[in-house]
Amino acid sequence: MKFTVPVQTIIEPITRVASICASNASNPDDLAQFLMLDVKKDGITMTGTDGTVQLKAVIPLPEGACESEGSFLMMADRASEFFRVLGNEDDVAVELKPNEDLLQISSAQNDYSMRVRAVPEDNSFPLFALDEEPEPSFIEIEEHKLRYMLDKSIFCVSRDNYRDYLKGVRFEIEGNEFSIFALDGHRMAAIQTELQNPPTGQVKFLMTLRGVTELQKLLSNNQDALIKLAVTENFIYTQINCYTIVNRLLKCKYPNVRAVLPANCAPELHIPLEELKRNVKRVALFSNKRLNLVNFTFTHNLLTLNTQNSEHETAKAIINIDYPDETGHRESNLNYDYVREILNATDTDEVVFGFSPPYNNTLIRPKDEINDMGVRIRYVVSHIMV
Fold first, then answer.
1. CATH of 2-117, one of 3.10.150.10, 3.40.1010.10, 1.10.620.20, 3.40.1190.20
2. Which bin fits 374, alpha (ψ -120 to 50), beta or left (φ > 0)?
3. What pTM was estimated for this model as a whole?
């Protein structure tokens, strides 16, 4: 096997695909630690996986660049480090002679030898068997809109080794409504929009956080670019430019999250975003660090923020708001970190707090019910019981 390729065409793909691969230093025979490279006359296919996410990149080769075809495995972290520091100005010549395990790499006046492995004949390299899956359902949505919706939701996913359904991002399509839910047991993001060409019937699935994060990295902000997601019983996959990403879906019962969303909130109170962010950050410095609790008390035209800690330190801030009910009173004990992340994800000049019986949760949303992108964003934060 021998081919020549400009370095700049493979640095980004090989480092990105390598980043997917598993890391298992205690078991050198774990093939998920390796990149699989399949070299053909017309291009190079690089594949990496960690068992739940698989990423494949196809790099075309100009005519005559490949003198002979072949395939091999190379350690992912070594390959990533090597090509990242190689530089991107020169062509690189790569040769692997039959029955040898040293890859010869030449660039400019430099020569390197990198140890590789043969692709197992028993097909034990952990590729996903998409050809065994039933016919997929297809979801078509603008790339920039999907990226925006993921950005506004994935920070609510649990990072702890807890219930499986808390460790993923839920996607639901009913009619033309496309919803994304993310939760960690204490807060939830509910992001919704409408699809122009929805699939037939209901489509519901749970992606892993790793799969969503890697998909988000590939999505562009191009408002004209569309992405088509293919969903089967066990996988979701899509192609973006030269990459094909596949995520093994989480298979577990998912709770009725729609029932958690407060309905018909009264009152809904508008608060200047920057003023709230500034003041809640200040008073949180004096909160009990175990609970990180900030007390929000809404009364006639006022929001009062209160904290105290075990050292008997206290903080209080008052923000003028529009709450015309002279006898109105709503009180919430909320975790500062949860509120901070929601406020940081809000991109309107005001944020809205909403309340509805039985007042166990507070709904927080941007000022605009549906923004210019056609996306509805809502967050639910559970009250801290003290």
1. 3.10.150.10
2. left
3. 0.92
